[in-house]
Design a protein that fits this description.
mainly beta, six-stranded antiparallel β-sheet, globular, binds cobalt (II) ion, single chain, Methylamine Dehydrogenase, Chain H
Length: 502
């Protein structure tokens, strides 16, 4: 299926207004430092203390030229600091080299991976392969560095307090010059006693090489590379995310091909040259983690179900079985060169379905199970359960029971019995990635809060919402003084962790 954006799409689709949704796509106009947020409703829990960092595209238009896809927008970091019931906001664009150049020039000077062209004549895009590192996909803290991540380049290092950009980081010498680093690290909560950050970089072509890296996140070696390995696999790989268990790093090689010609000719962005290949299987690539029971052995390659996966939820082990939970799409949802992302027709897009695959390592067989039929994205488990059998998951979902739609609800799903809680702001509100924050003093898996930035289509404003993780009951809504476009990923740094590091 080829997703279509129909220029004649009626403005009103089922349950939401297209303009309410698309109105979030605008430039972030102002940068704040430690501005107290106005509480509109409820009360901010006094025992929720730490910083919610969030990344996403913040610059989408220059002098009437629009990015072709919001994923091409420059990274803008928002940090929301929670302290005894008060929340303060700081926000700042990542000062990437390209952002500074384009700010000075007042126009787009670089092509985007998702099809954004340079301002000016179409021919100026031909054979111009320079891409800008837009640092817009995720933001995480590793040691003293706050890192703005974008998977086709090295991370940008920021000051965790002021969000000032220090420049590209090589992670204490672990990365070579502008080596690509995934935007989806997984935080191992302590499967080998101490917590770690596990991440990867990939070089792809007819063969693909994955560099798997593990960094210390506690103690004297915080931020240092502890261990790494490199493995080469046959075929092209588009790997946005992965997941971990105590013994394995798990990748899903989607069955898609890359045709570079339209990219070379300046007709398409690199990501627009990806196409599903229904003649071959997707594969699970299982790489043994160092210090695990299969350390130093070769990777395992096992056929995976059909479908396309951007994001995984979690994975865990049970003797010779590995369970992998992922959001599957029927096809790779692409944006064609003549389409306007603001007029996207959701009914023509494949929906994201949460599924669990049981991989039997003795027989190389797979069993597949659908966990929920409701279109979802941005799913997570309690961070203490990463790599382990987790009972609960929190995610953003469409409002409708089936089919694609904009994300308008937060759902807590019991992965054992299928029961769920939902918090919705349909028809005029839209949600982004929810972040589950466990209560530090509790061992109950669903004890804590959920934070989410929302877009209020009626008021044309961004809001910060706090929910109870247990039943998604509303705790607080705060007004954000800037409009923040629908964004990508974020993370939480607990103030207890900050104290421990110092
Ligand atoms: Co992602």
């Amino acid at each position: 299926m080829n997703p279509v954006i129909d220029a004649n799409t009626t403005k009103k689709s089922a349950g939401f207004n297209q303009e309410d949704w698309s109105s979030a796509y605008c430039n972030v106009e102002k940068e704040y430092q430690n501005t107290e947020l106005e509480l509109i409703k409820g009360e901010v829990p006094k025992d929720l203390n730490g910083t919610f960092y969030r990344n996403g595209p913040g610059r989408l238009e220059r002098k009437g030229d629009w990015v072709h896809h919001p994923f091409d927008g420059d990274g803008m970091i928002a940090s929301m600091q929670f302290k005894n019931g008060i929340v303060t906001l700081s926000n700042r664009f990542v000062r990437t080299e390209a952002w500074e150049e384009e700010e000075r020039a007042g126009k787009f000077l670089y092509r985007g991976v998702f099809g954004t062209k340079k301002s000016g004549l179409a021919l100026s895009n031909v054979f111009d392969l320079r891409l800008k590192n837009i640092a817009n996909t995720n933001v995480i803290k590793l040691g003293e560095e706050l890192l703005a991540l974008w998977e086709a380049g090295s991370p940008y290092s920021l000051n965790p307090e002021t969000l000032e950009t220090n420049g590209l980081s090589n992670l204490k010498g672990a990365l070579s010059d502008n080596e690509a680093l995934s935007a989806h690290p997984r935080f191992d909560p302590g499967h080998y006693n101490d917590p770690r950050m596990v991440t990867f970089g990939v070089k792809t072509g007819p063969k693909s090489t994955i560099r798997l890296m593990e960094f210390s996140t506690k103690g004297a070696n915080t931020g240092c590379l502890i261990t790494e390995r490199k493995d080469t696999f046959n075929g092209f790989a588009f790997l946005h995310d992965f997941c971990i268990t105590p013994n394995w790093a798990i990748f899903l090689q989607n069955a898609i091909d890359f045709n570079p010609l339209p990219f070379l000719l300046g007709q398409k962005g690199a990501a627009q040259c990806l196409k599903s290949n229904f003649n071959r299987n997707s594969k699970f690539w299982l790489i043994p983690r160092d210090h695990g029971v299969s350390a130093k052995t070769s990777p395992r390659i096992i056929d995976a179900p059909d479908g396309f996966v951007f994001h995984h939820l979690n994975a865990w082990e049970n003797n010779n079985e590995i369970y992998v939970e992922s959001i599957f799409y029927d096809d790779f949802p692409s944006i064609e060169p003549n389409q306007d992302f603001k007029k996207i027709d959701f009914t023509q897009l494949p929906e994201g379905i949460l599924k669990r695959c049981k991989i039997n390592l003795l027989t190389n067989s797979i069993e597949e199970k659908t966990l929920s039929n409701q279109c979802c994205e941005f799913a997570m488990v309690n961070p203490r359960k990463v790599g382990l059998h987790a009972r609960y998951s929190w995610m953003a979902t469409a409002e409708k029971e089936t089919g694609n739609g904009p994300l308008q609800s937060i759902k807590k799903l019991d992965l054992v019995n299928g029961k769920s809680h939902t918090w919705t702001i349909a028809p005029r509100g839209f949600v982004s990635e929810p972040l589950m924050i466990p209560k530090s003093s509790s061992t109950e898996e669903d004890h804590g809060w959920v934070l989410v930035l929302t877009w209020n289509g009626a008021l044309q404003k961004t809001e910060l919402v706090v929910l109870s993780a247990k039943d998604l009951s509303h705790q607080a809504t705060l007004r954000i003084p800037i409009k923040i476009p629908h964004g990508l990923h974020g993370s939480w740094v607990d103030s207890n962790e900050l104290l421990m590091e110092k």
